[in-house]
Amino acid sequence: MAEHSTDELSHELALAQRRIEQLEAALMRRTELLENKSAELANMKASRVYKAAHAVQKLFNRFFPIHTRRRAFARSTLKSIFGLAGWALAARQARNGPPPEERYLSESTPASEYRRWIQRWEPKPRDLAAQREHRFSRPVKLSIVVPVYNPPLPFLEAMIQSVLDQTYGHWELCLADASTQAEVAPILARYAAADARVRVQTLTENRGIAGNSNAALDMATGDFIALLDHDDTLAPFALYEVVSAINQHPEVSFFYSDEDKLDTIGERVEPNFKPDWSPETLRSRNYICHLTVLRRSLVESIGGFRAGFDGAQDYDLVLRASEQVPHIVHIPQVLYHWRMHAQSTAANKGSKNYAYDNGKKALTEHFARLGVDASVHDGPILGTYQPIYHLRKQPLVSVIIPNKDHPEMLRRCVDSLAKSSYAHYELIVVENGSQQPETHAYYREIQKQPHIRVIEWTQPFNYAAVNNFAARQAQGELVLFLNNDIESINPDWLEALVKLAIQPGVGAVGAKLYYADDTIQHAGIVVGMGGVAGHAHLNFPRTAPGHMQRLVYTQNVAAVTGACLLMPKSVFDAVGGFDEGFVLAFNDVDLCLAVLAKGYRVVWTPDAELYHLESKTRGPEDTEEKQKRFKREYDLFHLKWGQFLKAGDPYYSPHFRLDRPDFALKAA
Questions:
Q1: In terms of Cα–Cα distance, which of 18, 256, 44, 238 is closest to 123?
Q2: Model pLDDT, residue 86
Q3: Domains and their CATH numbers in the chain
Q4: Which of 133, 161, 442, 639 supports an S-S bond with 407, CB 3.0-4.6 Å?
């Protein structure tokens, strides 16, 4: 009984210790936030606006002292004067969302912020005039194909007019009309009579969206096909930007652009600034969507749209087209406006549930054509998908954990690894100068297990060199670099990482990491953020879907943190391992960029969730020596990857700010 009580007491003490460390980590995060806010407050107080307001407040207090009738009368008068203005401001914010500085955790861009972006960055009338006069060295004929079926008439006319308003004029508009509403045909006939580039074919029956789209495709004579829905519109510079991209990349057959939506009063909202070509992202959702432009010969070679995929016929087409081409080009401009109304999926995703079922079907057949053993399930949000890759074998994973003291932290990390549903791993703990007897006692304990080794690094600490040293002794087909302050949440986290890491072309995989206070620590790294690299969605709540739902589905990124990074050993060897010039900072980002440079992909997944008590053992950059080292590594990164930084992270839109992690648009 006493022994049992001792065990219970030990267990309670361990839980208490864990809770203390979690609270310490949360306190550390709160301290960082407090320091940031203090700096912001200091900057505000140093501003001219604050000083002027402070002077006015002092004058007000002088002439209207606190707790006097004069002050009460003055406040009442001012409230009456400015009350209406305040009400208007509140109403405007309710309609458009909070201003950017209050939007830190919002899921999409507020309309007010987007309006300012449009005014600042999109072509002005003089720019559009210059586009109309421009002559390309490689003129291209574009065929805009539109299946028409009983659209709201104002939207139909707006769609056609948006094509007529294009600054690039070498196009044809191919309209295949299966409408049963008598009012549609006269409108189409009127536009066709006014402009020979508008071509109309009347169908004798409704063949469904795929069949109607194929009828429009059959009319096309252009070099490239652009896909347009009957109730959406194009930006006036859309075709100009497309032809410009074709001239820059004459060998490419597949282009796509950014897009936004038109709300019920015709205001542009919800911009979707997309990443460059991202295969894993496309398998999680049809992020390409609009505007899609394909070489006509490519569309013909894959047989156009397929019956049985209505609602997801474009997704099916994009998946099949992507399998046939070596390069796909993203045009980072908003060229397409997707109409929101009661019948559209833009406004009501539930209006066409069959589309998502057909999307799963399209993705399932995509995997089958590629020979990928996977099944497709609904994602956590309607319109997203969760591919489940099947493991027919379990490759050995070599888990590498550098460690110095903190035996209880290491114990929790090792124990959570032992609870993983993936059992085929070896663990290599790299001892680096531990002083506590408890640490070495724990080493002796875990080495009784045949799959665990402790090796000793006797040189000065160098994160890159330590991991290279251990990797040379690793026997696994895959190698997992893991911090000692990591603790798993879901038991299948390692299995989720392995399933992705063994897919063809994948070079590195990262996990979704949380601070102890259940806020996001890592959801993929943006290269260029903060000068070198930063974490997207940093400090978002654990349950947040993220900007454009990016926190809920697997996607391509430029880099993932070395705190939990899995990669094929062959890829690690091919890139030469970690660059040991990066002693402590940027080594994981450098490794991932080397992976990209070799033509492999870096993937982040939310299906592997872990806690990361970041900086628990590292400490701040608070000494001159540490600051000099950081500066050396910062300079080395810029020397090595200057061209990449100049070009920008391909998975993070150039329209987003790099001084904050919440996908805020660049300021005017």
A1: 238
A2: 40
A3: 17-102 (no CATH), 138-370 (3.90.550.10), 397-647 (3.90.550.10)
A4: 442
